[in-house]
Amino acid sequence: MKQTILILFLFIGLQSLFAQSDKTEQKIDKLLSKMTLEEKIGQLTLYTSGWDQTGPVLRDSYKEDVKSGRCGNLFNAHTAKYNYDLQKIAVEETRLGIPLLFGYDVIHGYKTIFPIPLAEACSWDLELTEKSARLAAKEATAGGLHWTFNPMVDIARDPRWGRIAEGAGEDPYLGSLIGVAKVKGIQGDDFSDKHTMLACVKHFAAYGAAQAGRDYHTVDMSDRTLREVYLPPYKAAIDAGAATVMTSFNEVDGVPASGSNYLLENILRKEWGFKGFIVTDYTSINEMVHHGFAADEKHAGELALNAGVDMDMQGAVFQNHLQESVKEGKVSEKDIDEAVRRILRYKHKLGLFEDPYRYSDEKREKEVMFSEEMMEHARDAGRKSIVLLKNEAVEGQPLLPLSKSTAKIALIGPLADNKEDVLGSWHASGDVSKVVTLRKALTDALPKAEITYIEGAKMDNNTEEGFEAAIEASKNADIVIMAIGENYRQNGEAASRSNLDLPGGQQALLEAIHAIGKPIITVVMAGRPLTISWMDENIPAIVNAWHLGTMAGPAIVDVLLGDYNPSAKLVITFPRNVGQIPIYYAMKNTGRPFKATDKYTSKYIDVPNEPLYPFGYGLSYTTYEYGDLKLNKTEIGMDETLEVSVKITNTGKVDGVETVQLYIRDLVGSTTRPVKDLKGFRQVKLKAGADETITFKLTSEDLKYYNQQMELVAEKGDFKVFVGSSSVDVMEADFTLK
Ligand code: GLC
Questions:
Q1: Which of 145, 329, 467, 594 sits between 20 and 30 A of 703, alpha carbons compared?
Q2: CA–CA dist 378, 162 (Å, integer)
């Protein structure tokens, strides 16, 4: 009986859903039938307002464009009031009153800024990640926004690329899970809920594989690498229901993404069944002329629309040329109608036709921004993103956690009392005045300590004028804390670096202070891995604190003083020098794997093959022991499950969280396989002295890859399974797929 009632309810629910979408389609049909071709093209047009500049060109005619119906969507326009006024123009002063869609780059927070994505990914905490996205959406929607150009899920394995800061690092398995968590946080499960907004999966595709790490540069790779390494996070985010996708600036295999039928029609729409709408990146249609793929902008617009692009960001190409292209039969009005439909469908889902002003509530805006909930989460996300890279004993005692009775501290470096740079790249409308710096947090936490702060060096020039004061302060201190790294403009978009050393005069200052002989803790704050080999050799305690956002200071101090036991693990390999790049854990074995006793093997003669710090690495204030690695069987059939169990013991004196990682290696494949491939991880909370046995499950699904015929298959054969605290520090066992 109960089952019947449940089925009945389900049926009624589904029926009303279908009825609702039918009603929406009928409304769209009716509206489309009234629209002129120019008004339809207006809906395919996205312009920036004059507030933030995030690309090469700005338009100051956006209000007239809205009023004339030539622009149906705006980005970089926000706050309840500003967007209300712009919406009013669209709704009350245009012929059909179609509401505007407001988009913005809410990448790691809107007003309250959370850790940059690369940092937060190091938490390996999917719930935390989803919560950050949900809270960011809560603030952004209170600021009049409907759509965020997030998640950025570009896999990146070259830290010279400045936008590595915006993603989840080098691994597709972890990158996929993080992309899904962000889509869920941004979109929730109901677009009519005004705390949720549209997500935008970007940058499709493989933007992070720019040659030499130089932004916007050529991307060229095999279809196998594209599908095994770069595409999975986009697909995962789309399978999670992402409403929109943004095309990337780069070409892939000779075709710019915004004109690629292979990427947009074949893969995105046909293979993956993507039903949302596709927006280009900033003027990337126009840029197909520079690519040498389009003869002129009109030709570029035809290539883009016919490849599957629905919306032209800032290029005005659709606006200026599509009508003529339709007249010439180079683009069909039917395709334009379908693009308009895909966009209007989401304006309906957001409830904008019913109430175009529902996201412009100034009372709600005041209540939501910088609430205690936001600030506390920013601090929590910050401390869970900090990677402890080194903590060697000095005179028998590790420097960290720092004793709270430390009397005299020299706090040195350009990031110690810095409000803007710790917000990181893409910090949206983050309010610098709300940032709590390391200096402020340390002073508040140690009121009795004598803390002398000296900037000492600059990040953007080599001046040494601050050295003397910094050295003097260090000589008079019990311990030196150096906050050094990058400013927020030295990473992010259009900020590739060919040299990843500490920029400016920081390295010289570090060495000068090291020469004094005082114990030094370095807190490295950057948007990417830096080549800190000298630091690793000479400094006993190194904390990698990235750019952690509004609550950077308290988060770092929580770790430095041991109020939070660092648990983060690297999601991106740290190279010893730029010459090692690209370097990542999932590399191939090659036919001449390195052997110290054999000259003719794959190596450098001036640096080891191993990175400075590997993927998955991160220390704790406690220690963990792995043992009892057991498999429930040594061979599994295609439809069987392998259970891999391991016992983890907290052998130290401090409670902690350990991220246990599981990798596999397919020893023989019809195409060569990487020496390790992440296939699972679990976060285990362990009190000092406690232990826990955890079990992973693997099936043949987890072992699939593309064979020579580009079929996604699991092949019989021998495998290794690895379980451990990083991609290097592992236990291993063998099994066979039969
Ligand atoms: C930028 C970025 C993209 C961003 C867009 C809008 O150029 O490439 O990530 O979403 O323009 O600001």
A1: 594
A2: 23
Q: Is the CB of 380 under 6 A from ligand 1?
A: no
- Quick one: average pLDDT of 184-204? 97
Whether 281 sits among the annotated catalytic residues: the reply is yes
- State the distance from the centre of ligand 1 to the C-alpha of 564, rounded, in angstroms: 35
What mean pLDDT is predicted for residues 455-473?
Answer: 98
Protein fold of 378-580? Rossmann fold (3.40.50)
Q: Verify whether ligand 1 is closer than 6 Å to residue 493 (CB atom).
A: yes
pLDDT tens digit sequence for 263-308: 999 999 999 999 999 999 999 999 999 999 999 999 999 999 999 9
Domain boundaries, the chain: 1-30, 40-365, 378-580, 624-737
175: left (phi over 0), alpha (psi -120 to 50) or beta: alpha
Superfamily of domain 624-737: Immunoglobulins (2.60.40.10)
State residue 8's pLDDT score. 72
pLDDT band at 67 (very low <50, low <70, confident <90, very high): very high
pLDDT tens digits along 71-129: 999 999 999 999 999 999 999 999 999 999 999 999 999 999 999 999 999 999 999 99
CA–CA separation, 733 vs 408, rounded Å? 50
Dist CA 530 CA 486 (whole Å): 9
Helix/strand/coil for 398: strand
Reported as type and span, the H/E element at residue 444 is helix 438-445
User: What is the architecture of the domain spanning 40-365?
Assistant: Alpha-Beta Barrel (3.20)
The reply to whether ligand 1 has any atom less than 6 angstroms from the CB of 54 is: yes
State the pLDDT at residue 188: 98
**Sheet of strand 244-247: strand arrangement:** 200-204, 244-247, 277-279
